[in-house]
Design a protein that fits this description.
This is PucR family transcriptional regulator. InterPro entries: CdaR-like_regulators, CdaR_GGDEF, GAF-like_dom_sf, PucR_C-HTH_dom, PucR_C-HTH_sf, PucR_dom. Pfam families: GGDEF_2, HTH_30, PucR. This protein is an alpha+beta fold. The protein contains 18 helices and 18 strands. It folds into 4 domains: 123 residues, HprK N-terminal domain-like (Udp-n-acetylmuramoylalanyl-d-glutamate--2,6- Diaminopimelate Ligase, Chain: A, domain 1); 129 residues, Beta-Lactamase (2-Layer Sandwich); 159 residues, Reverse transcriptase/Diguanylate cyclase domain (Alpha-Beta Plaits, 2-Layer Sandwich), CATH 3.30.70; 89 residues, Arc Repressor Mutant, subunit A, CATH 1.10.10.2840. Strands 13, 14, 15, 16, 17 and 18 form a 6-stranded mixed β-sheet that branches. Strands 2-7-6-5-4 form a 5-stranded mixed β-sheet. A 5-stranded antiparallel β-sheet has the order 9-8-12-11-10, with helices on both faces. Helix 2 links the parallel strand 5 and strand 6.
Length: 553
């Protein structure tokens, strides 16, 4: 802890000193007091000194006086005091000019005061400040170490840091998701996960330039307002594991506060390492169990139910499987990443962590397993309430992944919920079917529940069969052939006619033609196909063939 030159001039005999030059440097910090005895004194200066002298070393040499002033300023000496009497009657005018030029505070000391009258009071204050600083460091160390050893995890670290700083504290994972926080604000003032996520998109662009375990002041926008933020990237196991974030609005953190924040970063690194080890072990166990469940690789149901209970997961409720798939991942790997394994693992790790975090508050939790280019999840789903929440979370996950990796396409298939561990395989196969049908018909990038596929649930299984193709060609094939030969739009008319519930007026409006033209085309379709719209069975066959057309094409 330093003392400014301005403050020192109010202590003891220095009250009688006169500032003759370098007024702009009066806020320089004094860290030490020393006496100049030899001309080459600057070689031992480290910066922050109050240097005092009688002037013997430069009394007869104007050039050495100039060099001395310039060298002291370059060494960031806090101030230079000259005591008149034995060698000078007053501070030389040339030194005043040089000191003003470089901004070095130049003091004319009282001639009748011993050096110790200047030095001892300042030393007492500096030593007292250093002692206070050491005590504060010890307090910070003990407080944060106790938080770590208490077993309270990140919440204890947040609380300890909040108690030390009195400012809102957040701990985030490396993707910017809030892990824990203590803010002491009213609910309407607190920053939610959404607020921080939006702000994180601004911060995220510069994170690579921030050194790990060092504090960095930045500005970010929360709720439409600019806020001062201090950020510490936390490095664990040679990579950035997360971030400590403090809202600094109002009074800025002093050096002690920044030290506490950086030390908390070191403590957090230990917690990140511990959590990572636990997470990886549990992830493997959960992944192995889920692989056994979806492949029905078990003999006794009671055994897998017991295994799941050790992981705090209940298999005795209605469960559904979802699959988050990276569409055309092989092409992405070849053309976008150039087979860079680090980037591929980064993508998969981000998806896993994002999904894991999204379902932390979901009732019953989630069981996840990364398999090739997709992430498989097993989750509780009982009733429309769970289905609605699940859909929202999956859509949010797709948005987050697309924001981080814009060139990746993500699709999600969800199987029906079942009760009973032997039905988990059925839900998994339905999720796979949902994915395949959606990718086949629409190109993917949606969340599709199996029960939403309707007729396509089983039509997809017939895709490519000769029976399907023959049935299609017998009906719609004749219309397509007629269109090709006569440059007409019978197939398109049929699609519009059914889309508009066989209403002639709405079909005419949809096709921008006269109602009579629609009547003519409907009769022509009946003539070509040999089917009647008045016959329910014929209408069904026509509609079925239009759906088959998507799969055949």
């Amino acid at each position: 802890m330093g003392l400014t030159v301005r403050q020192a001039l109010k202590i003891g005999k220095l009250k009688d000193a006169v500032v003759v030059a370098g007024y702009q440097g009066l806020d320089n910090q004094i860290l030490f007091v020393n006496i100049m005895e030899v001309p080459e004194v600057t070689r031992w200066m480290k910066g922050g000194e109050l240097l005092v002298t009688a002037g013997f070393a430069f009394k007869d040499n104007p050039n050495s006086r100039k060099k001395l002033i310039y060298d002291l300023a370059q060494k960031h000496v806090a101030a230079f005091g000259i005591k008149p009497g034995q060698y000078f009657s007053e501070v030389p005018q040339d030194m005043i000019e040089y000191a003003n030029e470089v901004g070095l505070p130049l003091l004319q000391l009282p001639p009748d005061a011993p050096y110790m009258d200047f030095m001892l009071p300042i030393f007492e204050i500096l030593i007292s400040g250093q002692l206070s600083q050491l005590k504060r460091h010890e307090q910070i160390h003990n407080c944060l170490l106790e938080a770590l050893l208490s077993g309270g995890g990140f919440l204890s670290i947040c609380q300890a840091l909040y108690d030390l700083l009195g400012k809102p504290v957040y701990i985030l994972d490396k993707s910017g998701n809030i892990i824990n926080y203590v803010c002491g604000l009213k609910p309407e003032q607190n920053f939610s996960f959404i607020d921080l996520t939006e702000a994180w998109l601004q911060i995220d662009q510069d994170l690579l330039n921030y050194p790990p375990n060092r504090s960095r002041r930045i500005k970010s926008e929360f709720k439409g307002q600019q806020h001062d933020v201090v950020l510490v990237p936390v490095q664990a196991d040679n990579c950035i594991a997360g971030y400590l974030l403090v809202l600094e609005d109002g009074i800025s953190l002093d050096d002690q506060g920044l030290f506490a924040l950086e030390y908390a970063g070191t403590i957090s690194a230990l917690e990140f390492s511990k959590e990572k080890a636990v997470f990886e072990a549990e992830r493997k166990v959960r992944g192995d169990l889920l692989e056994d469940l979806i492949s029905e690789n078990f003999s006794l149901e009671e055994a897998v139910i017991r295994r799941a209970s050790f992981l705090n997961f209940n298999l005795n409720v209605k469960l559904a499987v979802f699959i988050i798939n990276i569409d055309h991942f092989e092409k992405y790997v070849i053309y976008q990443t150039n087979h860079q394994e680090n980037h591929i693992q980064e993508i998969k790790s981000y998806i896993f962590e994002n999904v894991h975090h999204a379902f932390l508050s979901y009732p019953g939790g989630v069981m996840l397993h990364m398999k090739s280019n997709c992430l498989i999840g097993l989750i509780r789903m009982e009733g429309e309430g769970h289905e609605k929440v699940l859909r929202q979370k999956l859509q949010e996950i797709i948005r987050n992944i697309k924001t981080r990796f814009p060139k990746i396409n993500i699709s999600v298939g969800v199987g029906k919920p079942y009760k009973g561990v032997r039905n988990i395989k059925n839900s998994y196969e339905e999720a796979e079917t949902s994915l395949k049908v959606e990718q086949y018909l629409n190109g993917g990038e949606k969340v599709v529940f199996f029960q939403e596929l309707g007729l396509y649930r089983f039509l997809y299984e017939l895709k490519g069969s000769e029976t399907m193709k023959t049935f299609h060609d017998e009906i719609v094939g004749k219309l397509k052939q007629y269109d090709d030969q006569n440059h007409s739009n019978m197939v398109h008319t049929l699609i519009s006619y059914f889309k508009n519930d066989c209403n002639l007026n709405r079909t005419a409006k949809d096709l921008y033609i006269h109602k009579n033209s629609v009547i003519y085309r409907v009769k022509k379709i009946e003539e070509i196909t040999g089917l009647k719209f008045s016959n329910p069975e014929d209408r069904f066959n026509l509609q079925l063939c239009l759906k088959l057309q998507y799969l055949i094409e």
